[in-house]
Every structure is written in structure tokens, then in C-alpha cells.
Amino acid sequence: MPKPASGKKVLRAGLIGAGSSATNIAATIATIDEIKLVAVADVNKEAAQKIADQHEVEFVTTDYKELCTQNVDFVVISLPHGLHREVTVHCLDAGKHVLVEKPIATTVEDAQEMIATAKRNNRKLGVHFQQRFIDATREAKKIIDGGKIGKILQASVSVMWFRDMDYYKRSSWRGTWRMEGGGSLINQAIHPVDQMVFLLGDVKRLFGCWAHRVHDIEVDDNTCAAFVFESGAFGTIQTSTSTKAAFPARLTIFGSDGGIELDGNVLTFFKADGTKERTDYAAREGGQVASATDPKKFSVVAHARLMNDFADAIREDREPLVNGVEGLRALKVVRAVYDSAGEKVINIK
């Protein structure tokens, strides 16, 4: 295998899963000279073969355990959430580094087991929170850390989107506690929740509510929560997959000297003097990072940045920027909302 112009070692990747997210991951790998997709596994052999044919992959299997016997440096797991723990633990024990799609798992306990397994095997565990890598998030981090909006007072996550009932019917694992682990919060809204804890720190106390108001599913199609950060700042969350008049996903941060609003990859910086600066990074990075109505929309640039960081972590023997511990932070908030269920305040550990 010839060395790319960068001089970096080419890493061989295996892909476990062949759904829409896996298709996006394969397309992302195809843009990176230093990573080569060499194996695909999915119980649906036809779906796996389709991805393999598109990217000239020779090894295809219906058994992820068989994929782990191949010469691959790391695997990317793009499966229903409820399978993340089982498959990740097996791959780590088989000596493979693992990059797992969000959320890291459906329960905190499962995530902790995955983190412990990676440590025991001296393998890298990464979580696919690519929105930490978009320019809007990076710039927001600089603004906050630079003290430009003063003391953080409050933050708000709003993801009021729409998914029709066919979205849940097309994939039997969606809309179930066992395999999806939740609904609008753990699936659609977990990215801005992750951005929030990345930018502002962990949540220590939370009261949340959830319900299925429109869809015939087990899990939430609407949630809300009020909480307190470790810093003492306040926060709120509202999520939905029921609003046909779908709204942009927003993370808004209010400081004593200004504020920030993240709308996907668009950053608005509100200054203390009443002026504001709006920067549309989406146009620079090939489009928006997600869609209120289209679950297939994604940013190749953000995915590639995360993938490259994970590959470099393997080459340099360091932790990826979004390792298992980082990936667990958003899940703790999500699980607290579900566990609260409108009945009790949850103290997050």
C-alpha cells in the first residue's frame, strides 16, 4: 500500500453496520488518503455488499466477529445503539481500536464497561461526536475560554425537529428502549447536548420530563429539562421529533457580557454593546451539519476531522479528542432526563 503525500501510515479500517450512517462514514473514509476501508460487516449482506462495491472493498461478511479476525487497525461501529456495548467490547478484546457512533451506549453502565475494556486492552475508544470539530464550535470555544462573554449565566438547547412515523417503521430498532435507548433526546438532540457540555462543563443536578405525544413509539418524541451546571450556571433542554414546522437546532449560551448562538455550523456572537457578528461556516464546509427534516444530511468535513483525529491518536499513541470518557458526558445528561421522568431531581455523578 503506497504511502500518501502526508507521509503518514495508512490505517486499515473495518466498518460494522451498513445503514445510512455507515454509508456516510464510508463516503468520509473515501476522502482521506491515510485511511483505507478494507472490510464491511452487516447482518444484511446485500446492504454490506452495496457499500463494499461502491468503495472497492473486498472483504464482506454478515458476522462482525469474523471481521475482527481480519487485518484491520480499527473498526467503526455504526449499529443500533443497543448493540454498541456488545460489539465494542468484543472488538476491543479482539485487539482492535474502536470508533463508535453516537451515543456511546444506551446506559451509563454500558458506557463505563466499554471505557474499562479499552483501558484494559490498551486500545483507543472514540465516539462519533463530529460537531465538536465544526468551525462554529471551535470558534465558540475560543470566545468562551477567552472570557469574551463574561461569566456564563445560562444555556439552552433546542432541537424541535420532525420525523414522520415512517422513519420509525423503516427501522424496527428505532422508537424502542432496548435498541434505541430513547428517542428525540438520545438520537436527534445528543449532538448539541455534547457541544454544550464540551463548551460549558458538566451538569450536576437535573429535573426532566419526557413523553410520546404524536408517534406510536415506546420512547420520547418530546422532552424538556431544567438543570444546574457544576459551575452554578443554569440550563434548559427542549427536544422533539413531532414539529412539522421544524426549527433549526440551536445551542444558546448567555453570559454577563454577551452571548453565543450556534445554529448548526452558523455562529452568532452577541456583544455587550448590542452589536452582533454572524458567521456562516456552513458555506465554507460544504453545507449544514444536520437537518431538521432530512436524517441523511451530514457534513463530510466534520466527519473527516474527527476520523483523522482518531487515526492520529492511534499513530501517536494518545487519546482521541473525543474518547470514551468524553463521549459519556452527554449520555449522563440524557439518562438523567429519562430517569427523572417528571418525578424526581437527579444528581448526576
Instruction: Give the uncertain stretches in residue-range form.
Output: none
Based on the coordinates given, report the CATH architecture of the largest domain.
2-Layer Sandwich
Largest sheet: 9 strands, mixed
Q: What separation lies between the terminal Cα atoms? A: 47 Å
Number of helical regions:
11
Number of extended strands? 15
Order of helices and strands: EHEHEHEHEHEHEHHHEEEEEEEHHE
Write the CATH homologous superfamily of the largest domain.
Answer: Dihydrodipicolinate Reductase, domain 2
Based on CA atoms alone, the radius of gyration comes out at: 20 Å
Q: What structural class should be given to the helix and strand makeup?
A: alpha/beta
Strand content: 15-25%
As laid out across the biggest beta sheet, the strand order is 14-13-12-11-7-10-9-8-15
CATH class of the largest domain: Alpha Beta
What is the residue-mean pLDDT, rounded to a whole number? 94
The helix fraction, in percent, is: 25-40%
Q: What's the structural domain tally?
A: 2
Describe the structure.
The chain is α/β, with parallel strands linked by helices. The protein has 2 domains: 11-130 and 302-323, Rossmann fold; 132-294 and 330-347, 2-Layer Sandwich (Dihydrodipicolinate Reductase, domain 2). 33% of the residues lie in helices and 25% in strands. It has 11 helices and 15 strands. It has helices at 20-29, 45-54, 64-67, 84-93, 108-121, 135-145, 165-170, 184-188, 190-200, 300-316, 324-340; strands spanning 11-16, 35-41, 59-61, 74-77, 97-101, 125-128, 152-160, 203-211, 222-229, 234-240, 250-255, 258-263, 266-271, 276-280, 346-347. The strands form 2 sheets. The chain has a 9-stranded mixed sheet with strand order 14-13-12-11-7-10-9-8-15. Helix 1 crosses helix 10 (300-316) and helix 5 runs antiparallel to helix 11. The termini are far apart. The model has no long low-confidence stretch (mean pLDDT 94).
